[in-house]
Amino acid sequence: MTGSETDHRVELGDLTRSLGFLLRLAQLQAFETFYARMPTHGLKPGEFTVLWVVGLNPGQRQGNIADRLRIKPAHMTKLLQRLVAAGLVTRSVPKTDRRSMRLYLTAEGRDFVDRHRSSLLDLHAPERYALGEEEAAELLRLLGKLAGLEGQE
Amino acid sequence: MTGSETDHRVELGDLTRSLGFLLRLAQLQAFETFYARMPTHGLKPGEFTVLWVVGLNPGQRQGNIADRLRIKPAHMTKLLQRLVAAGLVTRSVPKTDRRSMRLYLTAEGRDFVDRHRSSLLDLHAPERYALGEEEAAELLRLLGKLAGLEGQE
DNA sequence: TATTGTTATACTCTATAACTATA
DNA sequence: TATAGTTATAGAGTATAACAATA
Predict the structure, then answer these.
(1) Chain B residue closest to A142 (CA)?
(2) A6, A52, A65, B15: which has the fewest Cβ within 10 Å?
(3) Chain A positions in Cβ-Cβ contact with residue B61 (cut-off 8 Å)
(4) How far, in Å, CA of B29 to CA of B47, rounded?
């Protein structure tokens, strides 16, 4: 089974111990699950993430939210244009600093978040991801630590 | 600190329990570490992954390797064109099925893999990823299970 | 007819730099 | 001078479909 002119098994070797490789596979899996579960709502994961965080932080500056979510400024601009066009988010320029943009949910945006909260945050998905309850919780903890989320929480 | 017209903390709420969000952050972190550690070798992560697997499975069909790594056929074609142009991989058409392409490392390719093996598989990176030895091992195990790697191993 | 791989097109996310308007 | 956000452009990865050659 060590390759060599066969069509059968593709050996991965130490690749199965590579964090980068496993993260990629896991993310593919998670995205498939994500899209498979709610195909019709019309928002992409990143868009709902921003919507959710705006809801939690009304009036927060656009750039602060982008930094926290590790979204680049240029991307944030385009993403918000879609959310504003969809009528889910409004922006306003505060008089204290007229360069900046503060973000708010519209009534429709709040309603959208309320309706799709748990499914779009995939909070109940772990069980369907072939992990047990405890394993899922431990995975989330380790990923958070890896991502440096703890020092900021 | 629940938002509302301040510039200070950006709350994430249950987002910190979203598998999809944490996978994204973790992957960003891992890629930064990846690129930070070996900036000069000239291969992207996906390219080295293919190189590695070809080395483990000489003569394997291009499509089988792509399937296993979850790389789409069109992408695999372009990725291989770069590896062939770099002199690291050769392809040959077997007489048994002249539609297919079998992949091999060149001597240069084998040498490249030998030289960059552990650093490009990020096998020693976990310690630098702010995780302890045991935590890193557990994270790898859980990610592998999530990605469905176990049934195939 | 089905399969292997290629080409072509497009869309998302990301990266970068140049730009504006404000500070 | 520096900062907040925008615009424009390009690259990487992915998705899709049409295609050629072979089975």
Answers:
(1) B139
(2) A6
(3) 7
(4) 19
Task: Tally helices (H) and strands (E) across chain B.
Answer: 6, 2
Q: Give the global pTM.
A: 0.88
Contact present, B54 and B65 (Cβ < 8 Å): yes
Cβ of B153 within 8 Å of Cβ of A16? The answer is yes
Would the Cβ of A82 be found within 7 angstroms of any atom in strand D? no
CA distance B48 to chain A (A): 11
Beta-carbon neighbour count of residue B133 at 10 Å?
Answer: 9
Residues 6+ apart with CB under 8 A from A43: A51, A86, A112, A116, A120
Distance CA B153, CA B132 (A): 25
A60 is near strand D: CB distance < 7 Å: no
Residue B64, amino acid: N
- Chain D positions with any atom < 7 A from a protein CB: 3-9, 12-17, 21-23
Nearest Cα of chain A lies from the Cα of B43 at a distance, in angstroms, of 14
Query: What letter does residue B103 receive in the DSSP assignment?
Result: E
Q: Which residues in chain B touch residue A135, judged by CB atoms under 8 angstroms apart?
A: 142, 145
Residue of B nearest to A126 (CA): B19
Q: Beta strands of B7-78 (E only): which ranges?
A: none
Length of chain A: 153
Tokens found for residue B82 = 């770069």
* Ordered per-residue pLDDT tens for chain B, 153 residues: 333 344 678 999 999 988 889 999 998 888 777 666 554 577 888 899 999 999 999 999 999 999 999 999 999 999 999 999 999 999 999 999 999 999 999 999 999 999 988 877 877 776 667 788 899 999 999 999 988 886 544
Residue B75, CB, strand D, below 7 Å? yes
